[in-house]
Amino acid sequence: MRPPRRTHASARKPSARAVGDLLGETDALAALRAGVRQVAALERDLSAILPDYLAPHVTVGTIKGEMLTIFAAHSALAARLRHLERGLVQSLQQRGWPVSGFKVKVKPEAPREASVKQARVSAAGVQCLSELAGNLEPSPLRDALERMVARHAGNTPK
Asked: What are 78-94's pLDDT values in tens digits?
């Protein structure tokens, strides 16, 4: 058996480091880190101001000049935000944010994954479907019932 190979220190892979540590290393990354913190703080403040039914569907964009960009999940929500603009701007100004207005853009939320059907047929139900399929003439209905019985035969709740 061979002894393990020794590698030169410079040939070793760099060790894993926290993203936060990397973001503070250079001026460009430090600026990015500050921007991320600013957006997170603005999003927290905006969520605190917005009614509970709106907050989960609104995200913050950027502040350019004194204009804030807000993203809404759908157009009805965007219209509602436009109606609330004056009060939201005043509340944000009271919290120290330099905004005089905002633009609302629609950014649809990612569709949720369709959940897999978890339908279960009881043992009595499977037996009844099997009897029904047995009493039918050959047809697409009979074929469908037989497939259903085969699918649920092992998955029946007791």
From this structure: 999 999 999 999 999 99
Query: For the segment 19-35, what is each residue's pLDDT rounded down to a tens digit?
Result: 666 656 677 777 777 88
User: Could you give the C-alpha distances from 86 to 62, 63, 81, 92, 106, in angstroms and in order?
Assistant: 18, 17, 10, 10, 19
Do the beta carbons of residue 71 and residue 59 sit within 8 Å? yes
Gap between the Cα atoms of 155 and 34, Å rounded: 54
Distances (CA, A) of 63 to 43, 45, 76, 97, 115: 12, 14, 23, 9, 38
Distance CA 93, CA 49 (A): 12
The reported pTM is: 0.54
